[in-house]
Amino acid sequence: MSEILQVNQIAERLGLQAPWKMLDFARKDDETHFTGFKNFTSNEAFFAGHFPVHPIVPGVLQVEAIRQLCCCFLPGCAREKRIWKLEKVKFRRPILPGDRMIIEAELLSSEENTWNLKASCRTASGVCSEALITIVHAPVVTGGITDIPALEDDCARLENICMDTDKVMGLIPHRFPFLLIDYVAKVEGSRIVAVKNISGNEPFMNAGFNTVPDSLLCEIAAQSGCSSVLSRPENAGKLGFFMAINSAVFHRQILAGEQMIIEIDLPPSKSRVGKAGGFIRVGEEVVAEITLMFAVVDA
Asked: 163, 203 in Cβ contact below 8 A?
């Protein structure tokens, strides 16, 4: 028997507020099939910062919509679930202001507190994204950092920093609230080291998340990689587009007060399509490993 949730019921079940409500309607068709719906309007907050001249829905928010749909109907408390793995995530066509999105998810298998699903998002133009997603039980984190961290390390923001915030914004079109790296500490050949501080004032923290949304870590890695690629002389004035997440594993949740160090390797490519891979760490602890695909195109 189907179960239907409308927008306020979804928000209550997930504990989320605007601008992170990525479902307007959700339906449990049966024990293994879930369907969701989302209207996109030009007033969505993220459009102001994601390719603002020609706004598009971030691919990672399509992944977040999938997560929210699945968490609404998987067994147990919806708020106590997060993404563990992503595989074969493909972004096939853009979603624009005014589009209407249907999300379809199928539960493939499950073990204790672990669920494997496949899902897709589509609009009237066709399939926009596809993903394999593994969701796990994760108790809600209510605390924060437990001590004052050291400020002096080889990635600290000093006067001779490789790329400050202004320089990053000169390379990629992202702006508030979707500019997700603070600066670039190093570029060493094909390797970039970027930094993102996590504050208790982050928009997602005020929308009901107690930690960084796992889907957002992929965008942080992508922005770091694009900053490196677009800083190369041959790519001056071009744009980078996120095409796929080949794989991503999220080892733990990230708290307000922590600093993420993003280390991404982008081997030179003669093709407009490139592959990047690396990890995100807090201190010396690796918290996420991500491999992604991107395209460099003329602006």
From this structure: no
